[in-house]
Amino acid sequence: MKLFLDTANLADIRWASQAGLIDGVTTNPTLLSQAAGDVDPRDVLKEICSLVDGPVSAEVVAVDAEGMYREGRELAKLADNVVVKIPMIEEGMIAVRRLVADGVRVNVTLCFSSVQCLIAAKAGATYVSPFLGRLDDVGHEGMDVVREARIIFDNYDIETEILAASIRHPRHVAEAALIGADVATMPTEVLKKLLLHPLTDRGLDRFLNDWSKLASRAKVNA
Ligand code: G3P
Fold it and tell me: For 180, phi and psi rounded to 5 degrees?
């Protein structure tokens, strides 16, 4: 399963990319508005694309098909690795078909059911993004959408990738991987947590402690 970072924070993206931990990045208007400040968000996106050896999702903010299509075409010009993010609405599906016909890769976002994922895949999306955490927040089982979408896509040999989004903790990542999601995108804090286990730290402390005892004994015997 590929791991994407869900942020527009350049320092975080630089760190994760240089550490070889990520295969791509997803952004959204909220994340870009937080990271860009007074800077033109297109410049931030270009910088992100230069830092990552993999797809970078950039979202349109128009809500009509023509506007989404035009905006998507402009975003796709920013860099070769841009994937245009289109919301899962009726007008959005028209824009998806037009962008895909032009050779632009699309990530359909704000998916909250497996049938929405199916509709987006039939429109030609490269990725569909079910939002796990936001479903969990309203008392649903977000992972069910990934589970159902996986079965549906496998039933019909649909190549659209399932990108598990709105990930809140490492267990979401593990469960998405067990189900067979193609990608999980997560905030920096969750990516960092994937590296950690208290028994790893305790084990390393013990190894180093025992080794230092050996080293000091060797010194005495020398
Ligand atoms: O970028 C899409 C999605 O991952 C947002 O997640 O944490 O705002 O629910 P969140």
Answer: 105, 25
